[in-house]
Amino acid sequence: MNYQTAPLTDTVEFELDGPWTAYWLAFLRFVTGWWFFHAGVTKLIEDGLAFTYGPMYMKGMTGTALGPIPVWMGENLAWLIEPGVPLFETLIGLALIVGALTRLAAVGGVIFMTLFWLGNAEFGNGLVNGDLMGLLLFATVLVVGAGRYYGLDGILEQTAFVKAHPKLRYIMG
Known about the structure:
The chain has helices at 19-47, 53-59, 69-76, 78-98, 102-120, 130-144, 152-156, 160-164. It is 63% helix and 0% strand. It has one domain. Helix 2 runs antiparallel to helix 3 (69-76) and helix 4 (78-98) crosses helix 5. It has 173 residues and is mostly helical. The mean pLDDT is 87.
């Protein structure tokens, strides 16, 4: 038996700079965006900009990995958390869906998911849980600049304004 050749190498190729990678990254960006957009819009429909569950939940987080920080936030920053959670989830999701300001939105998603992961602290199955998976999705979108793949960032980066201000590319992509 010859181990030097594999039967599919002549018919199937998957290169990281090929079209399947672009399709996958666009799909991953869209699904991650839909996940957050749906979470935010649902909160907006049910509670408007008064998501009182957020601060209430944070006040009860006394035994989590974040210690007294979320309790303090729930008691003192409710004015920001109540409108902020649904609004930012919606905006982060929408930005990822259309692929505009993708890296900036992904940073917001990373912050949210880090707080959710550490704050929920339900590590019954170890450190790997759904919150960590969400964090990894946002980090992947951030690192690869997934907005360039079938998103508005790919178009915006070609404009004269962005070319004149190349540092803007750091929040796009």
